[in-house]
Amino acid sequence: MTGHEQLLQAIEARRDELTELTRDLVKIPTTNPPGEYYEDCARYIGERLGKRSFEVKYFRAEGTPGDTDQYPRVNVIARHENSRPGPCVHFNSHIDVVEPGLGWQYDPFAAEVVGNRIYGRGTCDMKGGLAASIIAVECLIENYPELAGSLEISGTADEETGGYGGVAYLAQHGILSAARIDHVIIPEPLNKDRVCLGHRGVWWAEIETHGRMAHGSMPFLGDSAIRHMSAVLEQFERQLYPMLQSKTTAMPVVPDGAKQSTMNINSLHGGLQEGFAGLPSPLVADSCRMIIDRRFLIEEDIAAVKQEVHDILESLKRTRPLFDYKLRDLFEVIPTMTDSNAAVVREVASAIETVLGKPAEMVVSPGTYDQKHFNRIGLMKNCIAYGPGILDLAHQPDEYVDIDDMLDSAKVMALSAYRLLQPD
Fold this sequence. Notes:
With 424 residues, the protein is α/β, with parallel strands linked by helices. It folds into two domains: 284 residues, Aminopeptidase; 133 residues, Alpha-Beta Plaits (2-Layer Sandwich), CATH 3.30.70.360. 33% of the residues lie in helices and 24% in strands. It has ten helices and 16 strands.
């Protein structure tokens, strides 16, 4: 039996354990926002790995968005030192999940097994990937005690809301940094035969148009901020959206629709506050706010992306009577793409071909994930995403992960880590 066959068989033998580990993780409802049960989930991971010769540390990201005593942003990092000096391979998974929402056939936190699938919020995004990485690393150190270097597993907070209480905080404090870590694999759900090299860029901004309040029966005495915002939307339809459709990329972004620049209007609100019962007051809106989510390509410059919106708003200010606005940055991330010749890319791609019997597909994610913080703050360029799960299922009702896909992904993770720590 060859070395890798022994490793792959050891993982196959832990199918039931992988299933139950995934179910246990999903049953901890780490819903974000507000950030529930983070510490419970972090402790579950830490206690398991602590029994298996890992050094376990917990880090609360105090002062980050959302961190309170009721909802502490708790992260866990477990490190196993191998028998000889060498590089560090780090597997990072976020422990938070989005709210379940409506439309479920299955209890979102019961982690029901139906056929070859586990259903539940976070099965795909990304507790199935977290469980697969744990089984992969455990099998690796059990079967190869003479490996060089070290292996780390982290469970981090808040990826779904920007990652500032998780990877960003840990990178800022030098815990996740190039000084300690050589290769990073993030088991995000991008299909088990793909290596994800990076992601598009993102700019979130709030546009507020201003008006003047008046009685709804005499709107001519006021100035409607909602009508001003409708003029913004009209110019977006006439100018911005056609322009975005013409911007395409050489990045291997999936799905195909994301190979161009896009913009989504996340929310739009003007006038009276929502959530009241009864009839509204007859008022002309003196404020209207819109949140935009602009996704851009590696060929684009962030300053030019912002200027496109700014130019439309300034044009309206010159041509539309009483038009006034405020534009506020909320969040921005520059596109990133790891070199396809990096060792972590080569070894994961090679392991995919060994395990699945076909070449790996190189892709780029349409949305951002925590690679942005590893790259931008931690200065770690050898970072990819690879994990089980179908990307389209993330955040959907009846989210699931396929057990065979988790097993195959665990094999790929273990084999690629073995090769990175035993290059000869």
